[in-house]
UniProtKB/TrEMBL annotation:
Record-given protein name: Ferric reductase-like transmembrane domain-containing protein
Cellular localization per UniProt: Membrane
Cross-referenced InterPro entries: FAD-bd_FR_type, Fe3_Rdtase_TM_dom, FNR_nucleotide-bd, MRET, OxRdtase_FAD/NAD-bd, Riboflavin_synthase-like_b-brl
Membrane topology annotation: Multi-pass membrane protein
Length: 468
């Protein structure tokens, strides 16, 4: 094990008082989501009688089934909106937080949908005990739009099953992403029966409410997932300029484009990339910028971890690129303090390498800790040393495997048993710094835990991961 390499930093400056980030546009979004759920329950109360319907003979099961279906529909819409790539939502909350909320809403919606199906099946069989098979056949097949709804429900079940962590481990990202797109088809297929068969959709003003809700989700998705990316791809005309090997299995791709400054991209952000290099081009992959963006060039760095990422090494100059973005909040916009601590592991160095290039800070105000498995896998080692010397960054290199799955340190004689003490020794003034962290999810968790225990404020620890 090689002991940590520490490059000297410039003179220290006294810490300035924290700066407040203030109000962000996404702050009311959670409240609006809660209000939508309250509105759905209110509609159920007004149309079904609320709790009174649960005491009426023969109505309780169907009324509960209707409430479960309404809530499932509302949460389905919310989960689509959360990942509709609405720019101000992405900038305010960040992709990883939105992804976690998308998954939470998705699983909650799924179980409510299952409850909706089961409760109505029970209600039909109790109502027609002498003709149960025929009653269920009408419920799931022959009633108005019910065959379509059944097919949509099966599609959503498939999406949820393949989203379970154990199932995702067995799938390539490309395969999982393709299957996940069936959720849109599933939601669309269940939509018609709610208006033709749902009792809560008979009132005009109720139908207007739901039409507006579905319409907003559809419009947001169409605009921000399809129309805006297509327009930006056509306008900025990005093409591969060069492909450079950085380490075994890792390449940097530099792309040249037109008026890229109009996108207002900043270091730390990422795009979803599609390269028109042959079959499979339609499967987008998220890659962060690994250098500060310029008015005519962007650079990404890709580590081969699947079919899509391995193709990056085979890209040729002139290959056209389609983009979605920019996304991400691991940027200097989130700073609350003048000093910086940046911590990266493996390919997680890419956004932090861009951040230290153009983020405003004085010599001695930034520290970069970079952990990697072996010297040959130290991406940007020479660039980092040059940036550290030019801008007065304290650069700490930690080669070697991790000490343990729950630790952020490298193994070997140079480590301390206590992660918190090790971090405090390296960065004694961590409470006066913004902490930017990027790497594997488990490593990010270990760093966040140690940083908080060492004195970093919760709002000053900034992370973003792209685990799927």
């Amino acid at each position: 094990m090689t002991l940590p390499t520490v490059l000297p930093r410039g003179p220290r400056t006294p810490p300035a008082p924290p700066r407040s980030r203030g109000f962000t546009p996404a702050d009311p979004l959670g409240a609006l989501a809660i209000l939508s759920v309250v509105a759905v329950v209110a509609l159920w109360v007004m149309n079904q009688g609320g709790p009174l319907s649960l005491t009426a003979s023969g109505r309780a099961t169907g009324s509960l089934g209707l409430l479960a279906g309404l809530l499932a529909s509302d949460l389905m819409i919310l989960q689509v909106v959360v990942l509709a790539r609405i720019p101000w939502v992405e900038r305010s909350w960040g992709h990883d937080l939105l992804t976690r909320r998308h998954r939470l809403l998705g699983f909650a919606s799924f179980w409510l949908m299952i409850a909706h199906v089961v409760l109505f099946a029970v209600e039909r069989t109790v109502r027609e005990p002498s003709a149960q098979p025929a009653a269920l056949l009408r419920l799931f097949v022959t009633d108005s739009w019910m065959l379509c709804a059944t097919a949509g429900t099966l599609a959503l079940i498939m999406v949820v099953v393949t989203s379970i962590r154990a199932a995702r481990r067995r799938l390539r990202y490309e395969s999982w992403h393709l299957l996940h797109l069936y959720s849109y088809a599933g939601i669309a297929a269940t939509f018609p029966h709610t208006f033709t068969d749902g009792a809560d959709f008979h009132e005009t003003w109720t139908r207007v409410y739901w039409w507006c809700l579905y319409g907003f989700a559809f419009a947001a998705t169409l605009l921000h997932r399809l129309a805006l990316p297509a327009w930006r791809s056509l306008r900025h005309r990005l093409r591969v300029e060069s492909v450079v090997t950085e380490a075994p299995g890792t390449v940097s791709v530099t792309l040249k484009g037109h008026r890229l400054d109009r996108m207002r991209t900043v270091s730390g952000q990422f795009f979803v990339w599609r390269f028109l290099d042959g079959p499979g081009w339609s499967r987008g992959k998220p890659y962060t910028l690994s250098a500060a963006p310029t008015p005519d060039r962007l650079r990404i760095t890709v580590k081969a971890a699947g079919d899509g990422s391995a193709r990056a090494a085979r890209l040729t100059p002139g290959t056209r690129a389609l983009i979605e973005g920019p996304y991400g909040t691991l940027t200097a916009r989130r700073r609350t303090r003048p000093r910086l601590l940046l911590m990266a592991a493996g390919i997680g160095i890419t956004p932090l390498r861009a951040l230290i290039e153009d983020t405003p800070y004085a010599p001695g105000e930034a520290t970069l800790i970079y952990r990697y498995g072996a010297d040959e896998h130290a991406v940007f080692a020479d660039e980092l040393r040059a940036l550290a010397a030019d801008r007065g960054v304290e650069l700490i290199l930690l080669p070697g495997p991790r000490r343990a799955d729950t630790s952020w340190q490298a193994a070997g004689p140079g480590h301390l048993t206590d992660d918190v003490q090790a971090l405090t020794n390296l960065v004694p003034d961590i409470e006066h710094r913004d902490v930017y962290v990027c790497g594997p999810p488990a490593w990010i968790t270990a760093v966040r835990r140690a940083a908080r225990a060492a004195g970093a404020h919760r709002d000053s620890v900034h992370t973003e991961d792209f685990a799927w």
